[in-house]
Amino acid sequence: CETCSKEEAKYRCPRCMKYSCSLLCVKKHKLALSCNGVRDKTAFVSVNEFTDLNLLSDYRFLEDVGRTADAAARHCIVHSPATKRLLYCLRNKARGCNIELKTLPVGFTKRRENSTTFSSVENKFYWHLKLVFPHCHAEYTLKGVPDDKTLADILKPYIDPVESDPVVCQRLKIYTASPQSDVRILMKIENRNRNSVRYNELDASRSLLDNLKGKVIIEYPTLFVVLKTLKNDMVVLGQ
């Protein structure tokens, strides 16, 4: 068992492939790794390991995609003129800020959950934002983040030893215990080949808007918070 390291393992998680010995250890590993236990249907499988079962799984996955797309195409609200005008306005305002904002087709999860708005009165974006902490396997979703807020202020409720929430602080202990100088904020560069994934390093002292200028964003920004002292497989552009 990879959780208690005492008993013989009886179960294997379909999602993260961790071995467990009991229901208690299964629940503990899900809580520790934020694992939902559901098999990732889109996980990469090499040609050497590809079997008839993988082919059948892919076929069923494509059928599910087809059904979801068909249901979305019949949804009257998301295809309404008002919704289309809102999306056009968001993309147009983003272009004015030198941000290439792209929206996904109806039915995609990111399209459905995106809550980004633009205030004409204040002339600013209020972004839907996702923070990912890879070293702790934690993700947090923020709504209504003003574009003039600095990244350092955005991260304070999560990794600041004094201002962060006690529950969050405990979960992100490895971040709160590290000096702020070790924290790096990365954002994936879109429109690159899957075998050439690169990230841009953002400046924590600058505003969210300044950091997003000149970038391509699909629906909303996803920021990866990593530590310099810990190894990760995220390659920064130019390295």
UniProtKB/TrEMBL annotation:
* Its job: Required for box C/D snoRNAs accumulation involved in snoRNA processing, snoRNA transport to the nucleolus and ribosome biogenesis.
Q: What is this protein called?
A: Box C/D snoRNA protein 1
Q: How does it assemble?
A: Interacts with FBL, SNU13, NOP58, NUFIP1, RUVBL1, RUVBL2 and TAF9. Interacts (via HIT-type zinc finger) with the RUVBL1/RUVBL2 complex in the presence of ADP.
Gene name linked to the record: Znhit6
Where the record annotates domain HIT-type, the positions are 1-35
A Pfam family annotated for this UniProt entry: zf-HIT
Coiled-coil positions? none
Q: Which PANTHER family match?
A: BOX C_D SNORNA PROTEIN 1, BOX C_D SNORNA PROTEIN 1-RELATED
Instruction: Look up the record and give one Gene Ontology term from the biological process aspect.
Output: box C/D snoRNP assembly
Molecular function (GO) terms for this protein are:
zinc ion binding
Q: Which family does it belong to?
A: Belongs to the BCD1 family.
**Gene Ontology CC:** nucleus; pre-snoRNP complex
The upper taxonomy is: Eukaryota, Metazoa, Chordata, Craniata, Vertebrata
* UniProt keyword annotations, A-Z: Isopeptide bond, Metal-binding, Phosphoprotein, Ribosome biogenesis, Ubl conjugation, Zinc, Zinc-finger
Return the InterPro entries for the record: BCD1, BCD1_alpha/beta, Znf_HIT
User: Which first-to-last residue range defines the signal peptide?
Assistant: none
Q: Which domain of life is it from?
A: Eukaryota
